[in-house]
Amino acid sequence: MSTVDLELKSHSVVVYKRQYVRGLSLFSSWTWADLPVTGRHRGYIFLIELTLLCSEDMPSARLGAPVPSPWLVCPSVLPVFWGIALVSPVLIEIKEEYFRRIGWCHSSSECNDVQLLWSVLTMSISALISCFTGLLVGAYSDSRGKRRTYFVLNSVLAVLPPLWLSLTALKTGVSHMIGYFVLEILISLAGVGPEYARFPLLNAYVVDCCPQPQRRMRIYGALMALTLSGNLVFPMIGAEIHTFAIVHLWALLCICSALYTIFALPESHPGARDRLMGARSRPRPFDWLHLPPRATIVLRTCLEVRLTIAVADSGISQSINSYLQSALGFTALQRALFAACIGISGLLCNTLLLRFLQNECEWKAQRILLLALLCYATHYLVCAVASSTDVALFGGTLAGPAMLGSSALAALIADYTPSAIVGTAMASNNSIAGIGSAIGPIIFGMLFVWTREHGEAERLPFAIASLIAILAGILVYYRLPKAIQIYCESTPGMEEMMPRERMLDDDQSSEDDEDNG
Predict the structure, then answer these.
(1) 213-240 and 332-348 helices, crossing angle to 10°
(2) Which of these, 56, 76, 58, 79, lies nearest to 14 by C-alpha position?
(3) Are 119 and 182 in contact (CB under 8 A)?
(4) CA pair distance 198, 133, nearest whole angstrom
(5) Which helix (H) or strand (E) holds 197?
(6) How far apart are CA 66 and CA 256, in angstroms?
(7) How far apart are CA 263 and CA 272, in angstroms?
(8) Could you write out the DSSP letters of every residue in 79-133?
């Protein structure tokens, strides 16, 4: 082959790659006049392009399937969260009944303390196990380029606890309840627990399907809002339906989620932002351990914030129902109303407020995170001083804007983390939350039980949680800007990449406005 032919082939490949990245058709933006060739080479160039298009060894074959919509993951995860919201108001009564049957407690207050400590123990063990398995799953999903497999496994195992209770709900013995607690710990190997749900690759799935940073954050907020929408309806249903009947509906929701995930959920094509490299850009499972510190400085700072707030949030959320029942005399219906206030506030804040802060106020993720932490601190303080039902419900509404912190942290990690390890980064964020979910319930659960015996300091845990939220805000205010600056300076082309992604956001917003207009 002559030198001219080699140059011709190389030039053709480059033109083809550039054309594919732009997402246009093969011959839409250049003509044969653009190539420095004679007429006798035109047929040869066409054969080269046809070979590239059909070859499985070239990027075009792997990029034939379009990237799916990030919204397709919703039917896979939302029924699991909604099922948890459905059973949450009555799960305390279910546990108290069985602990009373086996003789571990006699009075209502004793049974409340026993079920609280038992729930805290099982949740902590499950969280500790799942935080390590989730990190491994994220690393291997980056390496293999597959996310869907884990969603399938996760959804199937999420069915087991409600299905176990549903099939054994009519029995009078307590062996099935003990088996339920054992099952709760075992299925945490997949990162899911019956009283909470963990999908560490959910945010990574969104990153794979959506390259625009601003739009990603809105999707995170919308997913959070859809999750919380279950708190508007399902806790009320759970408080009204018979205790055993509610378990059957919980199992049905999880079964529907598993069926959709197995038969309909598409693959997200990890690494879609680096299309030309394909499988060659995927790291080995533990390559992230050898990255330079500057490449992960923003990730590490976000994980510190996540751990700090997860300790307080998980500890309070796990014990707040027991606190409302003992301190303010909340019934199951009132606890469901409290959860509904949180759901309504979270639904509005993660949709309308988030869009307003981004579009009208032009707030970045860091400032939104600071607002969320301030609302966390205020939420805990209001619950601490609440002396009536109305004040407690108002404190519940303050938890809505506090939930913006989760979307802000996910957006920061997605924007300032190497794209090849985005699954590992998102899973590590979830794993850190798992560690906080293991530590927080133990500390605050024991603190609640101790303060209940000494009524003078019963509101102390809320004050401590508020101080922890303030500490996280100080960490964000002083350390995060410097970490972002170091990452941008150490990452080649980072300064040019962020303005280009903002242009993509503007284009996407203009397209949305044209569609709405």
Answers:
(1) 160
(2) 58
(3) no
(4) 11
(5) strand 196-197
(6) 26
(7) 23
(8) HHHHHHHHHHHHHHHHHHHHHHHTTS--SHHHHHHHHHHHHHHHHHHHHHHHHHH
pLDDT surpassing 80 at residue 409? yes
- CB-based burial of residue 103 (10 Å sphere; 0-12 exposed, 13-18 middle, 19+ buried)? exposed
Q: State residue 199's pLDDT score.
A: 67
Distance separating alpha carbons of residues 318 and 303, to the nearest angstrom: 21
Residue 197 forms beta bridges with which residues?
192
In angstroms and rounded to an integer, the radius of gyration of the C-alpha atoms of the chain is 26
- Please classify residue 2 by burial: count the beta carbons closer than 10 Å to its beta carbon, then call 0-12 exposed, 13-18 middle and 19+ buried: exposed
Q: Answer for the pair 123, 353: CB distance below 8 angstroms, yes or no.
A: no
Cα dihedral across residues 307, 160, 90, 449: positive or negative = negative
CA separation for the pair 237, 383 (Å, rounded) = 25
Gap between the Cα atoms of 427 and 405, Å rounded: 17
DSSP 8-state class, residue 403: T
Pairs from 456-465 (Cβ < 8 Å, separation ≥ 24): 458/323, 458/327, 459/327, 459/384, 459/385, 461/315, 461/316, 461/319, 461/323, 462/316, 462/380, 462/381, 462/383, 462/384, 463/380, 463/381, 463/384, 464/312, 465/312, 465/313, 465/315, 465/316, 465/376, 465/380
Residues 61-110 pLDDT 10s: 444 457 788 888 888 888 888 887 787 777 777 777 777 777 777 787 78
Taking alpha carbons only, the member of 226, 198, 187, 136 closest to residue 423 is: 136
- Report helix, strand or coil for 192: strand
Each residue's pLDDT tens digit, 160-182: 878 877 777 655 444 555 666 66
- Locate 491 and state its tokens: 């990452």
In this structure, what token pair is assigned to residue 478?
A: 């002083």
Domain boundaries, the chain: 3-61, 65-271+281-498
**Amino acid (1-letter code) at residue 497:** M
- Nearest-CA neighbor of 313 among 224, 163, 444, 137? 444
Residue from 258, 268, 253 nearest 153 by CA = 258
- What single letter denotes the amino acid at residue 194? P
Q: What is the pLDDT of residues 267-281, one digit of tens each?
A: 886 654 444 334 445
Tell me the C-alpha to C-alpha distance, in Å, between residue 361 and each of 114, 346, 506. Answer: 48, 19, 15
Backbone angles phi, psi at 197, to 5 degrees: -135, 140
Residues in the chain: 517
Run of H or E including 353: none
Q: What is the per-residue burial (b if ≥16 Cβ within 10 Å, else e) of 231-248?
A: bbebbbbbbebeeeebbb
The pair of three-digit structure tokens given for residue 201, joined into one six-digit string: 């690759």
Identify any residues that bridge with 196 across adjacent strands, giving them in sequence order.
193
CA distance 211 to 217: 11
Q: In CATH, what is the architecture of 65-271+281-498?
A: Up-down Bundle (1.20)
State which amino acid sits at residue 324.
L
Q: How far apart are CA 147 and CA 417, in angstroms?
A: 18
Amino acid at 351: T
